[in-house]
Amino acid sequence: MADKADCPPCSEDIGVTQSKNGTVDEVSEEIELISRKQGEDLANIWAEDPQKLDIPDTLLNSQHITSVVKATGLISPYFTGGDRYARLKKASYEGRIGDSAYKFEDENCPKLCFDRKKDDYLLVPKNSIIFVECDLDFRLPDFIALRFNLQIQHVHRGLLLGTGPLIDPGFWGKLCIPLHNLTDEDYKIPKDVGLIWIEFTKTTLPVDKKDPARPPHESANKKNRGKWDIVEFLDKAANQYYHYKVPIRSSLPKMFEDANAKVEKSAKDADAAAKSAEGLRTLNTIALVAASVALVSLVLAGLAYMTNLSGRNEDIAVRLRSDTEETRQVLRDHVIDVDRYEGQPIEARTAIPSLRRRGEAQQREIVELKQQIADLRKNMVLLQQATVALATQDASAKASGKD
To answer: How confident is the model at residue 320 (pLDDT cuts 50, 70, 90)?
Structure first.
């Protein structure tokens, strides 16, 4: 919100002004030209006996506004003077905060949120709607229509009134002004600062004639002399068709409340998901550790098997070499014996085929043992490949667990 230096002057600031040379000059004081009681009396007289006035059919300037007010009691109290803080401008008149303002809360009835006798300023809460009474009494003759708009300084600071509601000729009563604070900060308006500017338009009806068209509900007649309590307007507005009553308040606080609730729920869901993910990560870590232990055990078992297998193969090879050498030695001895005993009897020579068959049988055993050694070597290669594949799978599982 704006600092005090940026705010319009309060009533205690009115009365002095600063000239171009920096000196302080006196400001002309406001003069109450028409009081509330005088305005009421003038309006009653005009309602009974309208007179002729020289007023053009157009938007009225300041002189014409004053002439109509003095003749008909159109608005009261009515002030002139005040220099640059004067309420009367060239084609409009300033309306200020009245005696009260109301706000709908949880209940379906308006609650008082401003009392001029007690409060120094009107508080318009952030993202809310309040209903403000204007300080003027309105008693419109049949030839005058009014429009009003929020002062531009309040619009620039985030307040919204509407698009210049029309006040019909013949209206008597108080204005109920809805103020919307569209910002996310509370807005304070000093009670003696201007709130709205009112425009006055003369219709084509002659000033001394009565308009036979339907009068406003809040008009001057014998049964009804106007609406002077804005609570009546608010109760009427809150009553929907079919006797359904709803509070008139901004939807923004409820929307923000729902959004915050959804954000909190999302945050809780995110926390729960994070905890669940942490639990899953823990389980993954345990599983990875168990898989790593199993893999290490398998690798160690494979290495032990390969070591044992290598020892067995070595023993078999040593035994084969020994048996082969023995067989060769037997064959060499047999050949020597054959050469030595070639002239010996037939019995000795008949033993040679038997020895040859024995040598061939041993040679076949040697071939079978070599085949077994080749098969064992193939098994060792397959076991080494399986060990490498398990190690690669374990590394991939650890990488996935980290992600």
So the answer is: confident
